[in-house]
Amino acid sequence: MISPVDAINKIKEFTPVLRSEELLLSDALGRILSEDVKAPIDMPPFNQSAMDGYALGNIGNDRFDIIGEHKAGDKPTYELSQNEAIRIFTGALVPDSAVAVVKQEDVTRTDNIIQIMGKTVLSGENIRLKGEQIKKGHIAVKQGTPLYAGTVGYLSTLGVTNVNVSAKPTITIITTGSELIKPGLQLEPGLIYESNSVMLSAALFRENLEANIITIEDDKEKTREVLSNASEHSDAIIITGGVSVGDYDFVYDALQSIGVEDIFYKVAQKPGKPLYVGKKDKTMVFGLPGNPAAALTCFYFYVTPSLRKMQGHLYPELIRTFARLDSDFEKNGTLTNHLKGYLNGKFVTILPKQSSAMLGDFTDANCIVILPGDYKLWERNDLVEVMILPQ
Q1: Which CATH architecture has domain 4-17+168-310?
Q2: Which of 348, 344, 391, 347 is nearest to 369 (CA)?
Q3: How confident is the model over 25-42, as pLDDT tens digits?
């Protein structure tokens, strides 16, 4: 049995990075860059007005003759001499002969003359200099960066049309258990509705990923057959249930029989102690607990970093921070506890229903509170680590 920290490190160590592929920038939202993107142009590509106002030929005077106008998109047509100005608008090209832009609110205009009112204009004022944001040839976005809306927009302003991104992993979710039936069917005594596949699919969708879903009964040969086929066609297999040592838990033996090598089995944590991680060739195999709250918690802690690492993510783990407990808490045992919590500002509340079988409190949770195994008693205002959940 290993620690949660060692488990995460081993997963990141053994997880391979997938191949690269080129996509249109417009099709790459949510993907992760597989190489640096360098700026093909300066940004701004020319000296640009940051305000609606007047571009001045010199500073130190307060009275200027207006000789023309520049709006956004106009080509340079004016050369300014001493005491000359042009009307200029936000985003317009500032002539090389201009030394500053004065805001329109700081002047009065009479016909073609402006008077600066009670303000000292500084050289370069209200001018966005060519290359001020980034210079041509410099790295605009680093390898391993996810392409979210702001990043896509930024690259588009630089004229980038195609990017190289890591391939999406092919994922298979396998849920096991003869007691499982699909929601919508008649619930007979002894049966339960299968929720893990829907839950994990939703978590994958939040990662811009999808999976093939297979549900199997507790059957030794069927389990082996499904796992063998999945290992040939998947970058990651996520199994829920069947990994323990019960009479009808066939997953572990099936994994051994098809050549999956153990990375680790069991983690010193609650929930999710019987977590299994293995690898066959380049396929990562995750055996999650069958209890849904434990399965989802383990997914966030261990599966998410692996799937992100496959895509070359710079920061594969979910974001962590620190907060203060809003009440006393006593932990049983020596395992590290991963507890559903609600983070509100600088304080965090540990939610009441922490059973590995209970998903209800995940509807209120926005974080997981991490309580290390070597402590038992926490007091209000104690600082604890929390992992922020995707929303």
Answers
A1: 3-Layer(aba) Sandwich (3.40)
A2: 348
A3: 999 999 999 999 999 999
